[in-house]
Every structure is written in structure tokens, then in C-alpha cells.
Specification:
This protein is mostly helical. 57% of the residues lie in helices and 2% in strands.
Amino acid sequence: MPSTSQPKGRKGLNRSGSLPVTASLTQLLSTKQALKQKHGWAVKTLEIYERRLRQAREWLKEQLKSEAALEHPAGCPETLQPSEDWTLDDLQHAFDKKPNRASPSAVSLFIAWKCFNGKRNLKRGIAEQTHAAFKKFWEDADSNGLYQGRWCWDAERSTGKGNPASSPEVEDMVQAVKMLDSAEGKRWHLAAMSKEYMDMILVWSNKECPEQILTSLACSEDFARVRAKVTKHLLMIFELAKLTTQGMATQSQQGMQP
């Protein structure tokens, strides 16, 4: 009697694209992976994410080399660390599948280096791609969802939960890049801004974000609360300073007094 079973395609699927009535665990796992690859993330998007991850790892490797080559001043301990929150050993493993307390800082530092150090007008895209790449990287690192959601570091247990890319430190940096990118894109409009209006903005900024705001903080939680606000005002003042300098240079070239 001829067989009535349907011919199977690749990865344990029937021609209709569905699973057979009975399948081994190996078939199920293989099929699940095939379906994720086919109907999940776009190939082009994954290629971009992989490129950003590769660039970040290359940057970290060179950064660690530079730190190791630094000469310590006389009387300075050889074990001096760049941060009170993490060590260079933590930084070395910041991009591992198991994140550590340096992971948010490492992602944030890479975005800052890549975006504020570049000359091409691709800052916002690079920041968003890097953010999304690391978010997916750690979400996929644990099948039980350990590295999903808001990032939280347990200092007593020396372990983290959540996604380092979903930390205020990383998200604030991405937001700062977006603000800078928007400011550069609208420079043609801001260039016509009068000095009186700039002075009004500075008065408002000093009122909303006074210089004493950082010295009055009592703990790291307070700093995390105001970090985004301080970053916003610093970038605003930075852009106003650039506009003032550019305006004075233009007037000088035209033979006018500033």
C-alpha cells in the first residue's frame, strides 16, 4: 500500500509549511530556529546589528590597550581604576553574554566615542542601531529572559538582572545624540537667532539647571535622576556657543564688527 504521509520539506516542515503531527525534539528545535530566521528579524537589520557589535568590541579592545599603555604619575597606585563603580577587569568583559556592572557604561562610552567623535551626519542612526543591537544581543543571551527589562545591578550578589541597554545611562546617551543631531539639522534656522533671544535662553537654562545642581547631590540615585536634565542643558549651551562663534566668524569674513 502506498504511503499516505505528506512529503517533508527542509527543517522538518511539510510542504504546507506546518509541522508534522509527530516530530522529535530535534526536529522541533530545528524548525523553531528556521522559523525565527525566516519570519523574525530582517537579514539586513541583523547585519547592521552585527556590524555595530563588532565595532564596539574592536573599540573596547583598543581602549583597553590604551589604558594598559598609560604611564602612571609618580606616587599614583598602579591599580588606579577609571571609575568607582567598576574596574578595568569588569570593562574587559562588559560585552560578554553575561553582562556585568560595567556593561551600561561601556555601551554608553562607545556611543559617545562613535557619535561625538565622527564627522559624518549619521550620529542618530549609529546611536539607535548600537542601542538596538546590544538590546537584542542580551535579550537573546538567556532563553529564560533574565536579561530583559530594566537593568538593575545587585551589588551584594555581584550580579545583574535586566538589559544593560535598557539602563538610564545608555538611554540618556542615545537621547543626547538625538538632540545634537536635531540641533545640527536645524542649524540653518537657529543661525538667524538674535543675541537677545540667546540671552533669554541662557537665563532660563541657568534657572532650570543651576551650576550648583551637581554639588548638591547626596547619592548616585540623585545623579541618575537629574542626569538627563543636565545633559540636555549642557548640549543646549554647547550649541548656542557654537552658533555664537559661527556668527562672529561670518561677520568677520564679511568685514563687519561682531
